[in-house]
Amino acid sequence: MKARKVKVLQINQYCGFGSTGKIVLDIADLVIANGDECRIAYSRYEAPESYETYKIGGKFNNYEHVLETRLLDNHGFASRYATRKLVKYIKTYNPDVIHLHCLHGYYLNIKILFDYLKVSDKKIVWTFHDCWAFSDHAAYIDYDENGNLPKQYAKEDLTEYPTAKFSPFHNYKRKKEIFSHVPNLTIVTPSKWLKEMTEQSFFSQYPVEVIHNGIDLTKFYPDKNDNLLVNYGISLKKKIILGVASVWDKRKGFIYMNQLAESLPIDDYQVVVIGKLAGDYEISDKLVHIAQTEDVNEMRQWYSNAAVFVNPTLFDNFPTTNLESLACGTPVVTFDTGGSPEALTEKVGLVVQQQDVKSIVNELENLVSLGLNDILTQGVGFEKGAKFAQYIKLYEGLSRENSTYSAKF
């Protein structure tokens, strides 16, 4: 029997919605199964009723934050009243560990929150799901021509999320001041790529650990179903080249799926792209586009029916779509960008240079011939329970009295 329960509070934009919202629930399930306590503070949409949650702000708070972001690039610095109420809630709940996730998303005032965290004496874990914490504006950034992290972005970059008209502030400088000198803070990144980037930023003052994202193997496994192709009018003789994203924005690389469709012989291959298009894209008549599916069974069958899964992302932390494909026995090819290559070995996929569609075309037959057992073994290695259990280990180590614990995985 445990000597005492560890009380955990997770803070994220979503609870149960989107990739980070699902990760929050997966971690909560493990915390509770371990005999500990977990509550979730969130802002957008609704949370499952079976979890103990606290909703941060409301529609007015969200609208006001969006307005300040659009007009002044004040993202993360609005939501003053809602954040003060959140701080009161944290004091009342009195958790041992506060686990931060995405703090952007039009719902929090980072200065008010961190002013409290710096004096709270709480153990703090912060999972970086992107680069926003150390960027001037965008959620994803890349090194400049000199191999350094940019400290201020040009005006044209304000078109990237979170969109703004102009920026009278130097947000990098503001973030550096707010996020520095926080006692008992441990950073977690889901990829080695983001860990390296984080350690080159002002967050180098903190320990940084890597905990890869995981997937639910009860939902993703080989499940080929020819009826799926028949229902979409696709010949069973064709090899399916699949691309998947929740939203195909510029970063996700839809144009390269289009190029791939135009480059492959239509009698032998069918490119299928699943996900909403964020932009006025011209869609090749050789490409099948499915705007959206929330049916995990259908997604599993698409992965299983595909000959190759293509992830043409230009920036990504550690995409779970790669893992889902592997778990269904389908090889993966991705650009050499961000943390996307980290789930792959030469036995299960291929990494090509950014925007190099020609190499993908040339290597498709080699990818199709990769061993099924190797692919499935790689996929099983990312089972979510095993991966997220590392957070439990981290929480317990940090919550020990007078702990100077730093987990090594």
Can you tell me about this structure?
This protein has 409 residues and is an alpha/beta fold. Helix content is 35%, strand content 17%. It has 2 domains: 7-212 and 384-398, Rossmann fold, CATH 3.40.50.2000; 226-380, Glycogen Phosphorylase B (Rossmann fold). The protein has 13 helices and 13 strands. The strands form 2 sheets. Strands 3-2-1-4-5-6-7 form a 7-stranded parallel β-sheet, with helices on both faces. Strands 10-9-8-11-12-13 form a 6-stranded parallel β-sheet, sandwiched between helices. It is globular and about 65 Å long. 45% of the residues are buried.
Count of β-strands: 13
What's the N-to-C terminus distance? 25 Å
The succession of helices and strands, N to C, reads EHEEHHEHEHEHEHEHEEHEHEEHHH
Strand coverage percent: 15-25%
Indicate the CATH topology of the largest domain.
Rossmann fold
**Percentage of residues in helical conformation:** 25-40%
Query: Structural class of the helix and strand makeup?
Result: alpha/beta
Radius of gyration: 22 Å
Question: Mind describing the biggest β-sheet?
Answer: 7 strands, parallel
CATH class annotation of the largest domain: Alpha Beta
User: If you average the pLDDT, what whole number results?
Assistant: 92
* Overall tally of domains: 2
* Assigned CATH architecture of the largest domain: 3-Layer(aba) Sandwich
Number of helices: 13
Side-by-side strand order of the widest sheet? 3-2-1-4-5-6-7
Q: Name the poorly predicted regions.
A: 403-409
- The backbone outline, from C-alpha atoms, is globular
Name the CATH superfamily classification of the largest domain: Glycogen Phosphorylase B
